[in-house]
Amino acid sequence: MKSLTVDLADRSYNIDIDRNLLASIRFAEEFPYEQRLVLTNTTIYALHSDRILSLVDGDRDRVVIIEDGERYKNLQSFAEVHTRLLELEFNRKSLLIAFGGGVIGDLAGFVASTYQRGIDFVQIPTTLLAQVDSSVGGKTAVNHPLGKNMIGTFYQPKRVLIDLSLLKTLPQREYISGLAEVLKYGFIQDADFLEWMRLHYEEILGKESETLAEMIHRSCSYKKGIVDQDERESGIRATLNLGHTFGHAIEKLMKYQGILHGEAVAIGINMAGYLSCRMGLIDKKDQLYITSLLHLFGLPCEAPVAFDTQAFLNAMRLDKKNTTNKIRFVLFESVGKAVITDDIPEAYIIEAIEFGTP
After folding, report:
1. I need a surface site. Which of 184, 193, 240, 325 has the fewest CB within 10 A?
2. What structural domains and CATH numbers belong to the chain?
3. Binding site per annotation, positions
4. Burial class (CB in 10 A: 0-12, 13-18, 19+), 310
5. Which part of the chain is the 3-dehydroquinate synthase C-terminal domain (predicted)?
């Protein structure tokens, strides 16, 4: 087993990574809470009901199952979980278990941070994207019709349990989607990691055991290092939003249907590459290298549908990362180094939108 510690003083916690991790621990002894509730979705419950029920002593009432999909990360689902906690008379010494992908982890964390002003929660991520990114760092949220992740908190889990065997049931499209967040770490801080991924792309796409474990461990190490320095995104953590300003706008305009989060991020990264080149931050060779890596791993570089340019700009203006009336972007200063700026001519932003849409 590989372990990392997110070092946040009294909010520190471990990230444990292993194949068949859940089978190797006695959950009730490891987490001796009298009251435990699992949040999952319909797809994950159908695949892993036995594992999920084992976490709550076989009590189906202590499992909340929501529909699968980003559009269900909303206040209605948030209220549904709170209602179950109240019906079961859970107290402040309870444990909420997130068993699912990024939607489940974000929602469970937000519920945990607000129920009776805060209860403990554990992340058991089942998608690559959640394992390498969203389960680590304490960002919790639900979406609002006017913007993604607009209602939420910073609230750290007590543990992140990454069981690599859970990826066996993950559809290949969702697995590839998660690779966008893995590539992101190389794009913003380690060009050598990108070359490692390029050289091992066949093993990565084939989910070869040792390569997969190394990739996830390195990704979590990058994320942990950034969160250690900047828990609440006042500085370096904002670079993790590479591709997300464009990507979140795409998701919102598509009403969170027909596109996965990682796919939208990949398109956003490609658009950020174009914009970085247009601004003179990187040269054309670097821009093409960025695009080629996205293509190598089967990620999309262009949105599946066209958008109204003004609607796209308006969606980005509502992004929570903006601190003024200008749109804030994470761009490439080089391949392996990111820069944050809002000093970009609107004409260049429009060019980037047109570059990334049909």
Report:
1. 325
2. 2-169 (3.40.50.1970), 172-356 (1.20.1090.10)
3. 68-73, 102-106, 126-127, 139, 148, 181, 244, 261
4. exposed
5. 178-322
